[in-house]
Design brief:
12 helices, about 45% helix, about 15% strand, binds nicotinamide-adenine-dinucleotide
């Protein structure tokens, strides 16, 4: 049995769906169901004997102790987080609550459980912490991409809270020997992503004829990875990663925000042309940049390619097409 936290969110739900397709091993999903958690993401596995849902908060030590004793997981995969940078600027407290205190409480529960295991199970236990490339800060246009040894330099309350959680995870390995793994991934896109995030926001706004807001000059650069590729990478790290190690995960696919909006508009023009013609690109609207907006992130994912033989299957073109098609086919999901 594995314990997944935050499995009703975007990446966690994709991970559970993929897990249940590829493995027979049972999975328990612990999720507090914040605004970002949506059980409709998991309809395909509800009722399966392989899947169990538990509503709860990763800061709840008593709940975690009970759950660990009950399900005795051989691994914990921690997706639970506050994940939206803009929200962290307006209300950072929830980010400290879940990302820092929550990861700490989960580490404590995992450590207590791990210590009760026989030696062989202790050796095989894993705590996999899902993190972000944003902890590394901002790059100049010609700087080399982030590697696993790039110094942390978080610039938003979101990335600072994720950085703090990464440090705690690292410390639990060095201090207590807990077999931890940390993954730092670039921007994900794909099915089930909440519509506050850039790509689903652009798709759903365009379809509603609303403005497509782009911060500042739109020249901010991000690396983009299709969510199913991220989930495959996490499975691979869980299976074969070396405890204590960090793995950067990325798509080798840097794009400016303007390139993203143009690509989304081109696909929508093809797949859902506007009545009366005209491109969705006419809806692009530049808005005031957000404070402290990082200019560029780029991931060097060579380590996971060399050590674990992982590379993304989707290109940006194939992944974005699948994503746009999914939102077009599921209007009920984002109207929820
Ligand atoms: P999300 O916001 O879509 O989902 C987060 C999930 O965690 C939700 O289901 C929510 O209900 C749950 N949750 C929040 N607080 C909780 C708490 N205190 N206890 C239990 N559950 C709680 O996030 P996501 O985009 O799926 O991201 C998952 C993880 O991946 C996060 O740790 C994020 O930092 C990381 N990450 C995301 C991206 C991305 O592009 N989305 C990229 C790299 C890393």
């Amino acid at each position: 049995m594995i314990l997944v936290t935050g499995g009703a969110g975007f990446i966690g739900a994709n991970f559970i769906l993929q897990w249940c397709q590829q493995s027979d091993e049972p999975v328990t999903n612990l999720d507090a169901l914040t605004y970002a958690g949506n059980l409709a993401n998991l309809t395909a596995v509800v009722g399966s004997p392989q899947y169990r849902f538990e509503r709860g908060d990763i800061t709840d030590a008593a709940l975690l102790a009970r759950l660990m004793a009950e399900i005795k997981p051989r691994a914990v995969v921690n997706f639970a987080a506050e994940s939206h940078v803009d929200r962290s600027i307006h209300g950072p407290q929830a980010f400290i609550h879940t990302n820092v205190n929550g990861t700490f409480t989960l580490l404590e529960a995992a450590r207590a459980h791990w210590q009760t295991l026989p030696a062989e199970e202790q050796r095989d236990f894993r705590f996999l912490h899902v993190s972000t490339d944003e902890v590394y800060g901002s790059l100049g246009p010609n700087d080399p991409a982030f590697t696993e040894t790039t110094a942390y330099a978080p610039n938003s309350p979101y990335s600072a809270s994720k950085a703090a959680s990464d440090h705690l995870v690292r410390a639990y390995h060095h201090t207590y020997g807990l077999p931890v793994l940390t993954t730092n991934c670039s921007n994900n896109y794909g099915p089930f992503q909440f519509t506050e995030k850039l790509i689903p926001l652009l798709i759903t706004n365009a379809l509603a004829g609303k403005p497509l807001p782009i911060y500042g000059d739109g020249q901010q650069v991000r690396d983009w990875l299709y969510v199913e590729d991220h989930c495959q990478a996490i499975c691979r790290v869980l299976e074969a990663g070396t405890p204590g190690e960090v793995y950067n995960i990325g798509g080798w696919n840097e794009k400016t925000n303007l390139q993203i909006v143009q690509a989304v508009c081109d696909l929508l023009d093809e797949l859902a042309p506007q009545v009366g013609g005209g491109s969705y690109a006419s809806l692009i609207t530049h808005v005031t940049d957000r404070p402290g907006h990082d200019r560029r992130y780029a991931i060097n994912a060579q380590k996971i390619a060399d050590a674990l033989d992982w590379k993304p299957r989707e290109t940006f073109e194939t992944g974005l097409r699948k994503t746009v098609q999914w939102y077009l086919a599921h209007p009920e999901w984002y109207a929820l």
